[in-house]
């Protein structure tokens, strides 16, 4: 309760925290729609000898889509036991990679939200937390791009491998013109299509989040520092100007010529220079009077 009381939940109203909530939610949608999928399709094989026909062949498949391990039994229409056939393809790598990125994104988003709410000061201290957050966010953005594209291609292959019209071609009895083979029920893959959409939505969210995290890193100020330090050094010309004024006095005196000479009149007075002549002028004038 103390943590809840001390939490700075206003950060969730800011883009930095609000987008993390969206990432957390859409990560759940992405890995759950893919990882929890199970589908089924039906076919029928009607043999010339109706007693050997099978009008309801069901084939079930699910995540992680190791279709080469999925099998079904189909009649041969020649008497005897049915033949066992396997689907084609193993698409577990792209599916599991997609789900793994979704799970880790969910965990990281939840951890980042906790940091924002409870230890935001340490997060912003020396910008270290924000810089780490930026690097991790960039990595996840790249991983969402790769995993979403890979899973989109994998899903396309899964649809092809589970198309009843394609699977029927594996049944030897369907090569005979007197036998009739057809699809009864197509698999519903709308949930898998949604998972791909959620993957690209996560990509957009993580790429967009880079800007808000970047603003917390302080790197923007470092880039602008090429101009800021010049502002900070502006007092230096003032001090230089003050020193310059000090140096300009003798220079100005050298232009005027009088002030430096008056400053040195003490020496002339002692030596009987120009000051003495100036003092004697009133005497000579009184003598003339």
UniProtKB/TrEMBL annotation:
Polar residues biased stretches: 277-289
Main subcellular localisation: membrane
Membrane topology: Multi-pass membrane protein
Region feature Disordered, mapped onto this chain: 234-289
Pfam families: MARVEL
Taxonomy, superkingdom: Eukaryota
Residues spanning the membrane: 21-40, 97-120, 132-153, 196-214
Keywords carried by this UniProt record: Glycoprotein, Membrane, Transmembrane, Transmembrane helix
Compartment list: Membrane
GO cellular component: presynaptic active zone; synaptic vesicle membrane
MARVEL domain boundaries: 11-218
Family the entry assigns: Belongs to the synaptophysin/synaptobrevin family.
PANTHER family xrefs: SYNAPTOPHYSIN, SYNAPTOPHYSIN B
Protein name: Synaptophysin b
